[in-house]
Amino acid sequence: LAAEEGFDLDGFDAVDGAEHVRLPVLAVVGRPNVGKSTLVNRIIGRREAVVEDKPGVTRDRVTYEASWNGRRFKVVDTGGWEIDVLGIDAMVAAQAELGIEQADAVLFVVDATVGATDTDEALIKLIRRAGKPTVLCANKVDGPSTEAEAAYLWSLGLGEPYPVSALHGRGSGDLLDAVMDALPEAPPQTFGDAAPGGPRRVALIGRPNVGKSSLLNKVAGEERVVVNELAGTTRDPVDEMIELGGKTWKFVDTAGIRRRVHLTAGADFYASLRTASALEKAEVAVVLIDASETLAEQDTRIISMAVEAGRAVVIAYNKWDQLDEERRYYLEREIERDLVQVQWAPRVNVSAKTGRHMEKLVPAIETALEGWETRIPTARLNAFLGELVAAHPHPIRGGKQPRILFGTQAGIRPPRFVLFASGFLEAGYRRFIERRLREEFGFVGTPISISVRVRE
Ligand code: GDP
Ligand code: GDP
């Protein structure tokens, strides 16, 4: 094994996930029509500054990246506010409340030409309760003549009102200086005790109606995602930071989960694009399946997408509350027959409706990530391969017997193995090796790849 060093491909593993530092977050809050969106556009300078958003969406929390005097920060446009309104607006208001909670500072926008309304007063109460540093923007002060109106806003008790014209840019420099004073230099890492690389990234995938948004809301335990019976209520692709089992997890592309495109041509295509993009961003995929229905071709296709994307995989059977004995019997058969390709994936049987076994989700995800990142030292791997080949040699083909000369793990996330052999290894034998590798080393919840290089 003198050549071992030369074959070591470990250096090929790139570090991914560039979000190591948390930027300070500014929440822009105010009644509808006071000019929040205009102001946000003024702050970010260009539309291209959009980082977590599709432009033109205003009903949900939308985050942009911005900078002022060389300091970078994030701006959250909290969307339309209306206190004590029913239905969708109330839920959007709840989003804004969460926006305030998760911000390091608040920019409160008032229309100076209107003055403070009851809604403004109610908002101020909310802001006070959150206890965040607040800057007061008196907007629509387009010229010196309206300046006096702005001064009235001292009475709100939020300190100096900064007269600004979001539309024309007047006064926005002074406002931003005040904002920078309010924002902490280095915000506390509120996103948990995340390892370098930030919170682990989870994609919740599955065909329509399996219960993705129900599950998301259940685990989030609060109205982070706007849920509504109506179609198309959540539109921007925000990632959700969710506390689970004492850690913070990033559920990627969660708004897409709620995006309803049923009944339209190309809906399947769209759904599979969304799945692909969520997988792209994630480290681990939780594939949701409706346990109460026969496994569909689309279910297995989504599982295959996760496996082919090389992600750690957890299978979650949802709607367990709806199972009867008969369905349960058939379900077991289905799992044996149709999910052989992912026998290695941890399975949890949950109900987003009743909350059944929600607590098993995190351990399953953690197990899968552990398997995904398992690295077998080269010496140990070769000791294992040596024994295995001695006990179960490759079948003789055409008078020849291919031998495995040496193996190495080329990478993790997911584990990739390269075997150097004296001849072509049949697929069946490769599968056998994979099975034995899993028996020996675990690799629960992760696809593994084995490639063979034939050396003459
Ligand atoms: P939001 O939805 O509450 O964030 O408010 P918008 O940014 O959509 O603005 C509401 C309306 O006020 C739009 O017609 C804007 O053009 C207008 N507006 C925003 N800022 C100013 C300003 O500084 N001066 C004037 N005159 N109009 C403004
Ligand atoms: P999505 O399209 O995957 O996001 O699915 P939804 O979360 O919108 O759920 C689709 C339907 O299934 C809704 O009517 C939910 O109330 C229902 N549902 C979701 N989870 C469960 C569950 O665990 N048990 C039952 N009985 N119904 C559920």
User: Which sequence of strands runs across the widest sheet?
Assistant: 2-3-1-4-5-6
Order of helices and strands: HEHEEHEHEHEHEHEEHHEHEHEHHEEHE
Oligomer: single chain
Shape: elongated
Helix content: 25-40%
Name every ligand kind in the structure.
Answer: guanosine-5'-diphosphate
Give the total of beta strands: 15
Biggest sheet features: 6 strands, mixed
Distance from N terminus to C terminus (CA atoms, Å) equals 17 Å
Output the radius of gyration: 27 Å
Provide structural commentary:
With 456 residues, the protein is an alpha/beta fold. 34% of the residues lie in helices and 19% in strands. The chain has helices at 4-7, 36-44, 88-101, 118-130, 147-152, 172-182, 212-220, 254-258, 267-281, 297-308, 325-338, 361-372, 378-391, 427-441; strands spanning 25-29, 62-68, 71-77, 105-111, 134-139, 161-163, 200-205, 240-244, 247-251, 284-290, 312-318, 347-349, 404-411, 416-421, 449-454. The strands form three sheets. The protein has a six-stranded mixed β-sheet, sandwiched between helices. The two termini are 17 Å apart. Bound molecules: guanosine-5'-diphosphate (2 copies). One guanosine-5'-diphosphate (GDP) is lined by residues 206, 208-214, 257, 318-319, 321-322, 351-353.
